Amino acid sequence: MPAKSRSWRRSIALGLVVPAALGAGLAACGNSPASTPAPAAASSSAAATASPPASILKMITVDGRRLAFHVTPGHQPAIVLDAGGGEDSSYWKGLVPRLAQDTGSMIITYDRAGLGDSDEVAGPWDVHSAVSDLEAGLHQLGVTQKVVLVSHSQAGEVATYFAQANPQLLSGAVLVDANLPPFFTDEEIARLVAATAPQIEEAKKQPSTKQNRQLIATAANFGPAHHDYHAASWPTTVPAIVMVSTKTPFDGSPEDAQRWRDAAAAFAKAGPDRELVTAEGSSHDIPLDRPQLVLDQIEKMASGG
C-alpha cells in the first residue's frame, strides 16, 4: 500500500477507533513509523540455528465466517497478540519472530472480522462479537489456559470484555496504549464524536474497500458502545501491565492527551497486580517505536514476574 494511502487510512482508523487525535494530532498519528526497526544481527551461529519456525495460517470457521489465525509453533501457554483499530495481524510482524525466539512460546496473531484475511460482518462493529470470535478461535486451536493476551489500542476493549468472560483462561495481559474504560466519560465521548465527524464523512466518500467499510462500521455505534464500555471492569484475578505512550493518540491536543494518561494511571491503580509502564518518547504506536520495551513487558508477564 502506498505510504500516502496508509497514512490516510491510519489517521481515520485512529479517529474512529482509538478513538483519537483532535486537529493536528490526527495528522500526527498518521505519520507513525511504517515498520519496526530490524533487530540487531545475531552474534553467533548458535543464535542463527535457534530461529523460530515460520507461522502457519489456520482458517477458523465461526458461524459460517472464516477468521484468519497465524500460529507460530511453540510450547503453551500461548502468547496472543491483538492489533488496534484498522490494523490486522501484520502489525506484529516485527515482534513475532523475536518473541518466539526469546520465549519458545506458541505465538498467535489474528485478523479480527473485516480485516486482513478474515471475512466481514455486516452492520456496526460489535466488540462482543469480536470477543466471541477470539474465544472460538482459541478453543479450536486448543489454547484453553494461561494465555498471555497482548492488546494494542482498540483491542483493549476486546481484552476487557474477554477477560471478564474468561478470567480462568488468562494468566495475564499486556495492554499497549489500549482503550481503557476510565477514559470514555460521556464528556470525552461527545468531544470525540464531534471531532471525528468530518473524517467519518470523508471516509464515506472514499472508494468502498474492506478496510474503509470496517472503519465506518466502527463509527456507527461509537457513542452508545463506549458509554457501556466506561462501566466495564477488569477482573481482579487477571494481572495486567498497562503501557502508556507519552505522546498518546492525542499528540496535538494536550487536554485529551492528559486524560488518556490519567485513564491509564487510574486503571493501573484500580486493582491488584497491575503495573503502569510509560513508553517515553513514543507515539501511540509503541510496538513500532519501542519494540524492545514491548518485548520486555510481554516476556516479563509470560515468565510470571
From TrEMBL:
Keywords: Signal. One of its GO terms (cellular component) is membrane. Residues 1-23 form the signal peptide. Gene3D superfamilies: alpha/beta hydrolase. PROSITE patterns: PROKAR_LIPOPROTEIN. Pfam families: Abhydrolase_6. It comes from the Bacteria. Coiled coil: none annotated. Residues 79-296 form the AB hydrolase-1 domain. SUPFAM superfamilies: alpha/beta-Hydrolases. GO terms for molecular function: catalytic activity. PANTHER family: HYDROLASE, PUTATIVE (AFU_ORTHOLOGUE AFUA_2G14860)-RELATED, MONOACYLGLYCEROL LIPASE. This is Pimeloyl-ACP methyl ester carboxylesterase. It comes from Asanoa ferruginea.
